[in-house]
Structure formats: structure tokens, C-alpha cells
Design goal:
The chain contains ten helices and eleven strands. With 286 residues, the chain is an alpha/beta fold. The chain has two domains: 85 residues, 3-Layer(aba) Sandwich (Rossmann fold), CATH 3.40.50; 129 residues, NAD(P)-binding Rossmann-like Domain (Rossmann fold), CATH 3.40.50. Strand 2, helix 2 and strand 3 form a beta-alpha-beta unit. Helix 1 packs parallel to helix 10 and helix 6 packs across helix 10. The relative contact order is 0.17. Bound molecules: NADPH dihydro-nicotinamide-adenine-dinucleotide phosphate.
Length: 286
């Protein structure tokens, strides 16, 4: 029987653990605080920011929301980041992407104090994660790793194939798998014979952004399959639905464990953000 990895349930469990630890910090006089900054009116971004704020409060943390006009200048946004960097009640800062055209996202993300960079995008955190010397890991690979570990705690010696090499998913995922002593292969758009490489994988992490690219006959029997992809497709009857980067029905027949889309990696992302905020607050407490 294929094990369907229930990202919603595992995320709920992670939030419960975070809530317990948050209560312990509050008892010591430290309430972890997460500031979320959103610039402009992008409806999807506002939905994400709302659920981040709701879940932050639900685990007992303080939530600070900063909504800026679409026309906000980069200088004004940087001034807000500087205030949040200096604010002792703010442990984590998240700037919701995408940002309007007049603002350079990299400049803004690099202005966040590494200790408060709960998205794990600052080069200091990237470097620390890469060297295995601590740091804050980006939320999606962090959550994906929790899902893998929910299936199997000891990953040493397993062959993991990561499909995709983006800075926010693929590359940090490689580092986290190496930390678990996996042998890691990274596959990207210039790789020859992706299918053959995926067929050799005990663990497949798909982060490509191509609907159902990874077919069932690419999956090694008994593999763990983690599908990070979120793709909206229009079905033959004209309806819109979300699919991953893995052809789920086919792959589920072969894999030992697999994440569905939706309901797999997606729900873990905000829970991981809260875990990073807790980590930052603990660091504040020393
Ligand atoms: P990017 O577009 O930044 O990266 C995609 C990667 O896939 C690139 O490295 C690219 O290679 C590689 N790729 C593209 N085509 C192929 C191919 N035919 N064969 C092999 N590799 C290929 O995407 P992200 O990493 O940001 O996101 C990936 C997916 O994950 C998307 O569907 C996104 O929506 C989803 N996502 C989900 C999240 C969640 O919370 N669940 C969070 C973040 C992303 P190259 O580098 O050579 O161009």
C-alpha cells in the first residue's frame, strides 16, 4: 500500500509543537513576533499574507502586518526594513513577493538582518545552510524535509534526486539532503536523460514547475516522492485544477510514499515559516 503523505496533518502537528514552545518562551517574557510586509494589491499575495497572520496568532506569536501602497519607493521600503531590523519585538521579517517593478527584490531581501530573515533568502543564511553551520533554511525545502522524515528517519546512504535547481527550492533542498547523508543528484533543464536519473532515486524531490512532467514509469518501486510543484491546468471539461510536477496517479502505484498536490508540501510552508520565527526568537533569548 502506498503511503500518502498527509501534509495538512503533519503541518498541524508541527504548529502544535511550535505553539507549545512559544508558550514556554512567552512564560519567560519573550513573545516571538513575525512582521509581514506587503507592497501593492496582488490578490494572491494578500490571501497568503492573511493566512500567515492567522496562523502566527494561532500559535501564540505576535503578528505585525505592514501594507504599503503599490507606488511605494524602494527607499521607503528599505526605511521600514531598517525600523523592523531595529525593533526588539520583531523576531522575523518576511517581505511578500512579488514586489512592484520599481523595487529590486534582491536589494530588499538582502537588507533584512540575517537573524530576522525567516524566509532564509539572505546570503548569510544561504551560506550557513550550505556549509552546514546553522542558519535559517528556506521554508519550502525545510517543510519538504520534514515530510521525508515523517516516512523514514534515517536517510543515510539513500540516493536522492532533486529535479530543479532554483535558489528557493532545489539548491537548499540539496543541502538539507546532504546534511542527512544522502547521495544527491541535481537535475535541471540542461540535464541529459532526466528520466534515467530519476529512475535511480530512492527519494525524488520534484520542483520544476511543469505539470506532471515526472511520469509513473520514472519512479523506482519503493521510492519516496515529494512533489513541490504547484501548477494550475485547465482540464478537458474547461475546469481549472491544481497539479504537481509528478503524474500523481501513475507514480502513486509505484512509490512507497508520495505527497499529493494540493495537501502535501504546500501546507508545510507556513508551518515552516513559524518554525523559523521560533528559531529566531530562541536565538534572541540566547
Ligand atoms: P523555478 O522556475 O525557479 O525553477 C525550476 C527549475 O526546474 C529550474 O532549475 C529549471 O532548470 C528546472 N527545469 C525546468 N524544466 C526542466 C526540465 N524539462 N527538466 C529538468 N529540469 C527542468 O521554480 P521554483 O523552484 O521556484 O518552483 C518549482 C515549482 O515549485 C513550481 O511549480 C512552484 O509553483 C512550486 N513551488 C511550491 C511551493 C510550495 O509552497 N509548495 C513554494 C515554491 C515553489 P534551469 O535551472 O536549468 O532553468
Amino acid at each position: 500500500m502506498t503511503h500518502i503523505i498527509d501534509g495538512k496533518a503533519i503541518a498541524r502537528q508541527l504548529r502544535e509543537e511550535i505553539a507549545k514552545e512559544t508558550a514556554q518562551l512567552v512564560a519567560k517574557g519573550v513573545t516571538p513576533g513575525l512582521a509581514v510586509v506587503i507592497v501593492g494589491e496582488d490578490p494572491a499575495s494578500h490571501v497568503y499574507v492573511k493566512s500567515k497572520a492567522t496562523q502566527t496568532v494561532e500559535v501564540g506569536m505576535a503578528s505585525f502586518k505592514h501594507v504599503l501602497d503599490e507606488g511605494t519607493s524602494q527607499a521607503d521600503l528599505l526605511a521600514l526594513i531598517a525600523r523592523l531590523n531595529a525593533d526588539p519585538v520583531v523576531d522575523g521579517i518576511l517581505v511578500q513577493l512579488p514586489l512592484p517593478r520599481q523595487i529590486d527584490a534582491e536589494t530588499v531581501l538582502h537588507a533584512i538582518l540575517p537573524a530576522k530573515d525567516v524566509d532564509g533568502f539572505h546570503p548569510v543564511n544561504v551560506g550557513q545552510v550550505a556549509t552546514g553551520s546553522g542558519g535559517i533554511a528556506p521554508c519550502t525545502p525545510f517543510g519538504a524535509m520534514k515530510l521525508i522524515k515523517s516516512v523514514r528517519s534515517d536517510l543515510a546512504g539513500l540516493h536522492a534526486v532533486v529535479v530543479g535547481r532554483s535558489n528557493i527550492v532545489g539548491k537548499p533542498m540539496v543541502q538539507l539532503l546532504l546534511d542527512e547523508h544522502c547521495t544527491v543528484t541535481v537535475v535541471h533543464s540542461r540535464t541529459q536523460d532526466v528520466a534515467a536519473l530519476v529512475r535511480a532515486a530512492d527519494i525524488v524531490v520534484a520542483a520544476v514547475g511543469r505539470p506532471e512532467m515526472i511520469r509513473g514509469d520514472w519512479i523506482k518501486p519503493g521510492a519516496i516522492v515529494i512533489d513541490v510543484g504547484i501548477n494550475r491546468v485547465i482540464t478537458e471539461d474547461g475546469k481549472s485544477r491544481l497539479v504537481g510536477d509528478v503524474a500523481y496517479e501513475e507514480a502513486a502505484k509505484v512509490a512507497a510514499a508520495i505527497t499529493p498536490v494540493p495537501g502535501g508540501v504546500g501546507p508545510m510552508t507556513i508551518a515552516s515559516l513559524l518554525a523559523n520565527t521560533l528559531q529566531a526568537a530562541k536565538a534572541r533569548l540566547g
